[in-house]
Hints:
The structure holds 2 protein chains of 2 kinds. By secondary structure, chain A is mainly β. Chain A contains 4 helices and 25 strands. Chain A has helices at 2-18, 138-144, 270-275, 339-343, and strands at 24-26, 39-46, 53-56, 66-71, 77-84, 90-93, 96-99, 101-114, 122-128, 150-155, 160-167, 184-191, 196-201, 211-217, 227-233, 236-242, 251-253, 260-265, 277-285, 299-306, 316-326, 334-337, 354-360, 370-372, 382-389. In chain A, β6 and β7 (96-99) form a beta hairpin. Chain A is elongated and about 100 Å long. By secondary structure, chain B is mainly beta. Chain B has one domain: Porin (Beta Barrel). Classes of the chains: A mainly beta, B mainly beta. The interface between A and B is large, with 46 and 69 residues.
Amino acid sequence: xxxxxxxxxxxIAGMLxxxxxxxxxxxxxxxLCPGNSLIVRDTTIEAVFDRDSTFTGYLKATDIPAxxxxxxxxxxxxxxxxxxxxxxxSVTVDGLAHALTLDSAAITFHVLxxxxxxxxxxxxxxxxxxxxxxxxxxxxxDAQLTPESVIGSIAVADTGNARLVLSGDVLQxxxxxxxxxxxxxxxxxxxxxxxxxxxxxxxxxxSRPPTMTLYGRIVIADTAKQRQTLTxxxxxxxxxxxxxxxxxxxxxxxxxxxxxxxxxxxxxxAALKDSAIILRATLELTPAGPLLGLTGDPAHLEVRGVLAxxxxxxxxxxxxNASALLLADATAVQxxxxxxxxxxxFIADAPPSTLVIGINPEGGxxxxxxxxxxxxxxxxxxxxxxxxxxxxxxxx
Amino acid sequence: MRSRLGPILMxxxxxxxVAAQSSQFGVRGLGLPMRPLSVRSTGTGGAFGLFDSxxxxxxxxxxxxxxxxxSFQSLQSWRRSVSPAGVATARDNRYPGIFVAGPVGGTPLAxxxxxxxxxxxxxxxxxxxxxxxxxxPVETTDTLQSLGGVSDVRAGIAWRGSSNLQxxxxxxxxxxxxxxxxxxxxxxxxxxxxAEQFTVSYLGMGVSAGVVARLGRxxxxxxxxxxxxxxxxxxxxxxVGTTKLPVTLAGGARVQFGDQLxxxxxxxxxxxxSADEDIVSQGGIxxxxxxxxxxxxxxxxxxxxxxxxxxRLGFYRARLPFPVIRGQDITETGISIGTSKRFVADRAGxxxxxxxxxxxxxxxxxxxATLLTVGISVRP
Lengths: 396, 380
């Protein structure tokens, strides 16, 4: 009996162990293919005529994510300015204020991007009047960037900190006066053998804003405390740009200091909405000319779906977007895979089939792409959709 | 009787009646036809099926049942399929049958309720192709999977005229579904994969009548006729057509040689060609009528304890009804060996059968499978 029980247990255990599935086999069609697989098709839909627009003003002047300087770029000439608050002339050590005698000073900017194909790029630092605000014009800044106002220049060959160190008599160039309320104004321009530009960290960028550091000595018995520093962060910084004028209705324009975005509207065929499974959807934008921007510092073209189409202030679908790099001087059609966005158009209670396109960093890039609009005779915005239709295989 | 059968009947009703082993020859038509056999009959190549009181084949075979019993099967298969597309090995496990039978006290009647596989359409096939998408060739991998099949739920009743004659009647409900999923993947990952899923469901009815007659001391003969109605086919609750089902005719003889050896042979004909037109109209290749011949023996080591490890051997050859190429027959040849054991005063036991089948569909299609079937029987 016990042997039989053991035998039975082994048989049952064997079945349980053997209880496995691995069904997949290669097949030779059409004999073993009971029907077709999903039917794959491709179609292109153009944006609805005259329902695309460019809107500007998404950014406040102080919201810029970067400071721009450039010279002779087709995307625009840019100058940067920064002001430093009135600084103390003493430091407090062991509870007592001690007058600081300056030895040297350093003005530091953080370079986010530059065109490394241009050698000999220099960031020229000027002393300018500190009475600046967001209404200051390019002409007002540029007029002050004279040879006489030069404090110094920084050779810039890579990203990271660019530091101008001053000592000796040059320190007089950053001396503050009562007439300026003891504030210091700095203007920046680029000097290079060919048109180029630099993108610098702004006050809104992490923790690397324009900074001035003063190195000096105080009179104190403790020699270890005689060397002292004072650090001041710019209290305002911005840039001014002399950019090409906004294009006409035949073009869509993205970027710019105030942030320009374009809205595109599409009307997918009803047949697709009924039963298509979107495999790939690509937004194709045709540049109206070589894309304006800074070589080596591409902007990202960003595409978003909207929750409701109320024009320029349409709320975006959260978590549904797509992006692609926009290289300066590109002339080819720019493509962005937007399946995630288009996929939302084919679900129940679908949002409007509207796209908002813009660039990132918005307001802080020398990129200034222009694309043909639906009012252009050719190169209209379009979406190329590859989709699958159910085939209901499994025939007997 | 009723109270003892109750829990078992509930079990039978609750058990998902799924079919048996998968095969590349189960892709077309209604799938791979199943053999409504107990493990004991499977061990004899199916030759004892018309006589076996635990096989849901001949309703007359339960006529001599003297006590209530239930059995349950599990089948594991390992197969190697060859097609012009390549060679594949696969394995799967199914629970092809559950069977309950018992006498109706005080009457010469016995009843049974069973669920067994009618056709099996479990498969998963993969193929590759290259599509030109946006002017660029993109390789695709398609997978089509079907799970399910058609099950045969039978209620049978048999009348025991004498120990030499039993006749039976069966009412069959054919029901089941194929859950079909189709997926397409692209080698270029910028294309998302796509899938579709739907369910094809089936419903039909049938009736069977059988007889078992003992001629003298050594010879017993049996016969069966079964007629099934049209099978209604729906896709996601939308009717797509009907499939005419075959008439089944079967006959066999069993000869007793002394106390220890029984030899049986049987032949079964099914008019599957009657389904040809319907299957073609639904997009299939077609169907052909089938004949199955089987012979087998059972050798008892101890005639007083027939389930004490008897030796069962069998052989069968059959034509399968659903070709993969029209006009090209698929044949199935099988050999088997089996045994059984009862214990706890014959209240519980197991049967086991090991079989090897070869299927040949011509044109480069062939298959070899090893089938291990284990059945557990209980007598409440």
